[in-house]
Amino acid sequence: MALLYSSDAVQQLGENVVLYDLTQMRGNNAVLSRIPDNIGGVYAWYRRFEIDANAINDPEVFVDYILGELYKDHSAPRETKLPPAHRIKLEPETSFSKELLLKELAADPSFRQLLFMLLNNSLIFQQPLYIGKATNLYSRIRSHIREGSILRDRLADAGHKINKCRLLIIHTSYDTSTVSDSVDEDDELDNQIEEDYECSKFASDKLVEDILSRLFLPSFTLRYG
Length: 225
Description:
This protein is of the alpha+beta class and about 220 residues long. It is built from nine helices and seven strands; from the N terminus they run ββαβααββααβααβαα. It has two domains: about 1-45 and about 130-215, no CATH class; about 55-120, no CATH class. The protein has helices at about 25-30, 55, 60-70, 100-105, 110-120, 135-145, 150-155, 185-190, 200-215, and strands at about 10, 15-20, 40-45, 80, 85-90, 130-135, 165-175. The longest helix is centred in the C-terminal third of the chain and has 17 residues, at about 200-215. It is globular.
């Protein structure tokens, strides 16, 4: 599992599995230049903990860093109608009652080192931010990371920067067609627009997304199915 906290921008985790650390790349073009075009597959966005070097040696900075990460929103707010004439909104909120204990243990360098080691390896046990499937991963990722995209703005509202995340891609197909996923985000993201599945390929993509989302509960997907 040492690969998961490698400083490499791109890590080959398996024959068809690639992990991208967007923190190690400068700008969207640098990200897209590393993603093959006309390759289909599944992708997942993960939170990355960018650790302040000062926090490693300074207990006060360490505590501020941990508290700051704890109090970021860990999911998108949910909103729905409550018949006959109301609407309810659920917003994430973190309650942490062990701040005094954290400050006490932060004085121990071995405790700080342990926690940072766990955060560096957080991909092992953390919930995905978002899961998707696309016939053209290049176009889909381009639509996600562009300025003003739905997913980018949703993450930013919760204090997460998409260009500071990790992106896991599993290649499942090679597509020589000219069909682009670049315009799919508004239709695809959280199934916010109803679609007629005239093409079995897109129906398959939607079904895979739905199954994976229900199994792994990505925290910034608003609706399934």
